[in-house]
Amino acid sequence: MRSLKYKDSKEIIRYILITVIIIAAATGIGWIFLMIGFPETNIVIVYLLSILITARFTRGYTYGLVAAVVATFTFNYFFTDPYYTFSVSDPAYFITFGIMTITAIITSTLTSKVKQNALESQEKEAETSALFHLTNRLTDAADIADIAGITTETISGIMNCRAACLCFDESGQPEQSFIQQLNSNEQVRRKVDDTAEVKHQIESLRSGYSIGSEFYDWPIYGRESILGILRIPKEHAVSMGESQKRLLRSMIESTALAMDRFRSARQQQESREETIQERYRSNLLRAISHDLRTPLSGIMGTSEILMDMTEPQDPRYDLAEGIHKDADWLHSLVENILSLTRLQDGRLTITKQLEAAEEVVGGAVGHILKRHPEYEITVDVPEEVLLVPMDAKLIEQVLINLLDNAIKHTPPSGEIKITVSQENSFATFSVADSGCGIAISDLPNIFQMFYTTHTGKADSQRSVGLGLPICEAIIKAHEGTIEGHNRTDQMGAEFIFTLPKEENNHAKPE
């Protein structure tokens, strides 16, 4: 700040000297004209010319106006009778002085205005050229770091300083290091001392920039979040004029647009890749499932025939039973995969009809006990018939998946229980087991697709993590809810889902 005041003082002194020298030169020329015998009007013209020259070589209107007044008094002092005094012997001189002063002031003002317009045009031209140069270079940037490097180099060259740039990641956190320009050909990476403090200063910013111990930090704002910080060394930032600040803000906006454009392009590319991968996976699963259904049905039928033709004591009976169980497991897996692909393609249609909850539960239990006759499943349903609008086939699949999941985690001697109850306008279904329960780390992820638990019991069973996600999708399609947690009364897990008892066919009031 002290250096800035010193610079201003030197400029004022220089402009005063220019004004004095020009007026003195005009006075000297006037003396020559007087000795030659030229009329006073020529001397007045010389003084008007001196005012024009003063306005040309000084800044602002002040010096031109001062020169106009001084020239009038100097002309009166040296070239009007009586000489060397400010007295006026002829009243007509007052008209001359007035016209001279007004003309000088108007001339000085117009000259200063033209000069100011020329300076503003030059500044705008330089600003446009700098922005074009920066934007042109940013189009070739390969990534965010490259954008930061190009911006730092360009601003350092235009502002004649060692600018720097600190980028933020996509989560809005500052990176651990920032780029700074050392010279015209070299950049370095410097470590950020305290990223949390940097973020706090930017978030609590109330002006256009933040003042630190080494830098003035200008934030680079994107459409949704902050993208980075442009850093100007403090000793240079203090002396920046308004035109330089305006240019800097424009260049920061260009940088923000380039960073936003790069992030958007990358997100679109990732989204396209995910869509393509998802399509390939769905097509592959659908093709595999359709190709497996027919041979699996044949294997299951043939194994059942062999079991009927063989005595239970015969070792071949165990082989046929094992084949039937494995084929049945594969068949259930194929059905889940087909349901998954229909859900992802939006082709799973829900056909709701009033169904007795007891019958749907009985169908699911019967299907499971066929595959696992060694288990006992307790069913608790209301005494009165509970009618619920549902797609019976899909809800039965939900119960089968939940029961199958319970059997995987529960020994044959353990308890598996289905409870159906009515709460307000919802029917509640609960499937509880007495197995090892759900690990705390697994609870947030149990409904994620292809997620499997890592407990010893679970690892001993075959699973691909499709059952629970399919259950969740079906229940949500019925406008219900589903959740899973560990039991509080004993070991084991419990899954609860609800279905609305009455369909909402009434339009919402506007």
CATH class of the largest domain: Alpha Beta
- Structural class designation: alpha+beta
**Overall structural domain count:** 4
Specify the CATH homologous superfamily of the largest domain.
Answer: Histidine kinase-like ATPase, C-terminal domain
Terminal CA distance: 63 Å
Strand order of the largest sheet: 3-2-1-6-5-4
Point out poorly predicted stretches.
456-461, 504-510
**What's the story with the biggest beta sheet?**
6 strands, antiparallel
How many individual helices?
13
Q: Percent of residues in beta strands?
A: 5-15%
Just name the CATH architecture of the largest domain.
Answer: 2-Layer Sandwich
Average pLDDT confidence is 81
Query: Using DSSP, what is the number of strands?
Result: 13
Write the element-wise H/E pattern from the N-terminal end onward: HHHHHEEEHEEEHHHEHEEHEEHHEE
The shape, in one word, is rod-shaped
Catalytic activity: ATP + protein L-histidine = ADP + protein N-phospho-L-histidine
Domain Histidine kinase: 287-503
Membrane topology: Multi-pass membrane protein
Transmembrane segments: 12-36, 63-80, 92-111
Question: How would you sum up this structure, described in words?
Answer:
The protein is α+β, with helices and mostly antiparallel strands and 510 residues long. It folds into four domains: 2-133, no CATH class; 140-240, GAF domain (Beta-Lactamase); 275-341, Orthogonal Bundle (Helix Hairpins), CATH 1.10.287; 349-500, Heat Shock Protein 90, CATH 3.30.565.10. Helices cover 58% and strands 15% of the residues. It has 13 helices and 13 strands. It has helices at 2-36, 40-57, 62-79, 92-138, 144-159, 195-203, 234-237, 242-309, 315-345, 357-371, 392-409, 456-459, 467-477, and strands at residues 164-167, 177-183, 186-191, 210-211, 215-221, 226-233, 353-356, 377-380, 387-390, 416-423, 426-433, 481-486, 493-500. It has a six-stranded antiparallel sheet with strand order 3-2-1-6-5-4. A five-stranded mixed sheet has the order 8-10-11-13-12. A hairpin with a 6-residue loop joins strand 12 and strand 13. Helix 4 (92-138) runs antiparallel to helix 5 (144-159). The longest helix has 68 residues, at 242-309. The protein is rod-shaped, with a radius of gyration of 44 Å. The two termini are 63 Å apart.
